[in-house]
Write a structure and sequence with these properties.
Elements: H1 16-25, H2 28-40, H3 44-72, H4 76-86, H5 95-127, H6 135-147, H7 149-169, H8 172-198, H9 203-211, H10 220-233, H11 240-245, H12 254-282, H13 293-304, H14 308-342, H15 346-365, H16 381-408, H17 411-418, H18 422-447, H19 455-485
Bound molecules: phenylalanine (PHE).
């Protein structure tokens, strides 16, 4: 159990945690990454697998992480150690916390580069230097923005600085206040872009691309990407949600909170898809354009719509804010660990983390200019950071979390902590014991080419069977056990 002498700080308002967790979840992952990987992996089928991963794997993992945080009241390392010790299990499991902390840190080191793009586009909009009417013009603007390491480095450094200033000040100030107006603002901007898209001539194609299921377009690699992105977009297995959960007051419902965050996050991602793909199809762009996709497409829409400059400015303000509310959550685990264990003040913890981060992020930033040729297996340093965290560390961390929550801990621990009614509790248990871990393993094995069945075609069946097995198992086994042990 929590053993700190001083009570841990908690979120201020009733909505504090929901706002902060939504602020962490909704970010560049929804607006920058989701559209571009959906484009790369072929659209509808990828989207469907992603949605399944969010609700079948993501939500149960999120509930477990929040429960770990609130029960253990500490950084991922300390919280996991306390909770497993409470069940009489080995502290070795806190390695999961170490991995999560490292993962959040590595993500942030490439995230600041992308957030830097958003800030620099805001600047371009403000100064009226974002001109051009064709896809080629926009590709040239994006290219030129990346080509100069001093320019790109300036923006990523700025994001790092702002992040560390906010983190140094503490969790409540800043986060709770800003997410409340930023989220509706972002949604309004996206709605505006969607309405514009409806008149652009590309809307039908966009809807078809996003929502028509074509199993042939889905690869094993794409399925792993969808799974990894579900973790990324919900800020899981990276210390963010778990640490935020450690500030959650007793009594708040973990289940309801997780589902609301997941729904809000998914809604923003789908809206971003509906805002961006019409522009892409109307302008004959390639949806698989890569990481520059939104920066090459959206400015074209702003260029063409009435009051476009104003809306463009507002959009990039919201996007930059959304990026910041996510980036601060990525270092919260590290900072909280340094404060609790190493006697750092929040400010000094934030600045020391910031310096190391700046060094790695600068190397990541160079992947777009002088270091473009420093590749390993065809991937730049920036690509590697993204690949290792999303494809491997987060799914593995998620697997560890559900195994821990489902099998290692005493059942009472999380039954208490989650405070669910019997049926939802059984559902959660079935998910963390069978459906989520098997789902993760099956996708991994598929990506590693372990078997020859094409999972991309058969996964809906498999998922159905898993869910049924899990639920019947959980419903039957306690009764069976009781029947066998009582006479
Ligand atoms: N969920 C954030 C986004 O979608 C990214 C993130 C990942 C935040 C991991 C915290 C931890 O932009």
């Amino acid at each position: 159990m929590a053993s700190s002498e001083q009570p841990r700080i908690q979120w201020l308002g009733r909505w504090g945690f929901v706002l902060a967790a939504t602020g962490s979840a909704v970010g560049l992952g929804n607006i920058w990454k989701f559209p571009y990987i959906t484009g790369e992996y072929g659209g509808g089928a990828f989207v469907l697998v992603y949605l399944a991963c969010i609700f079948v794997v993501g939500v149960p993992v999120m509930m477990s992480e929040i429960a770990f945080g609130r029960r253990g009241r500490g950084s991922p390392i300390d919280a996991i150690r306390r909770v497993v010790n409470e069940s009489g299990r080995s502290s070795v499991w806190s390695l999961l916390g170490w991995m999560a902390m490292l993962c959040g840190f590595l993500i942030l080191s490439f995230y600041v580069v992308v957030a830097g793009w958003s800030f620099s586009y805001l600047w371009k909009m403000l100064t009226g230097s974002l001109v051009g009417t064709s896809v080629d013009d926009m590709a040239a603007v994006f290219g030129a923005n990346n080509a100069n390491p001093l320019n790109l480095g300036f923006w990523s450094t700025l994001v790092t600085l702002i992040t560390m200033v906010i983190v140094g000040k503490g969790v409540q100030e800043g986060i709770e206040k800003n997410v409340g107006w930023m989220m509706p603002g972002l949604v309004i901007m996206l709605l505006l872009l969607i309405v514009f898209g409806m008149f652009s001539g590309g809307f039908g194609d966009a809807v078809r691309f996003l929502f028509s299921f074509n199993a042939d377009s889905l690869s094993s690699e794409g399925m792993l990407a969808a799974l990894g992105h579900a973790f990324f977009t919900l800020s899981l297995a990276s210390g963010a949600i778990l640490t935020y959960g450690s500030y959650l007051p007793k009594g708040a419902s973990i289940g309801r909170t997780s589902i609301s965050v997941a729904i809000a996050d998914t809604a923003v991602a789908l809206m971003a898809g509906l805002a961006i793909f019409p522009v892409i199809f109307a302008n004959g762009m390639n949806p698989g354009e890569g990481p520059g996709l939104i920066f090459m497409s959206l400015p074209l829409a702003f260029q063409a719509m009435p009051l476009g400059t104003l809306f463009g400015i507002l959009f990039f303000v919201m996007l930059s804010m959304a990026a910041l509310t996510s980036s601060i959550s990525m270092v919260e685990a590290t900072v909280s660990w340094l404060c609790d264990n190493k006697g750092f003040s929040r400010r000094s913890a934030a600045w020391s983390t910031g310096i190391v981060l700046w060094l790695i992020s600068t190397a990541a930033m160079l992947s777009f200019n002088v270091g473009a040729d420093w590749t390993l297996a065809g991937k730049t340093f920036f690509d590697w950071l993204d690949y290792i965290t999303s494809r491997w560390m987060m799914p593995l961390g998620g697997l560890g979390t559900v195994v821990l929550a489902g099998f290692v801990l005493k059942t009472e621990t999380f039954r208490d902590e989650l405070g669910l009614a019997p049926l939802p509790y059984t559902l959660w248990l079935a998910m963390v014991r069978y459906v989520s871990p098997l789902g993760i393993l099956v996708i991994f094995a598929d990506a590693l080419g372990v078997y020859t069945v094409t999972l991309s075609v058969h996964w809906p069946w498999l998922l159905g069977i898993l869910v049924l097995m899990g639920i019947t198992g959980e419903l039957v086994s306690p009764r069976l056990r009781k029947a066998l042990t009582t006479r």
